Amino acid sequence: MDCLHLKGIRGYGYTGALPEEQILGQWFEVNLWLYLDLVPAGQSVCAD
Description:
Structural class: alpha+beta
Low-confidence stretches: none
Number of domains: 1
Number of strands: 2
Largest sheet: 2 strands, antiparallel
Distance between the termini: 27 Å
């Protein structure tokens, strides 16, 4: 099993229950771990 770790993905968005949150916005940061089998993808690569 392979693991891709993407960290520090940042974006600015407008969300929230309070009006101030929807006007001012805020930064969001995501850390993501993906566990998947990359063998089929590696075998499908065409090398010239």
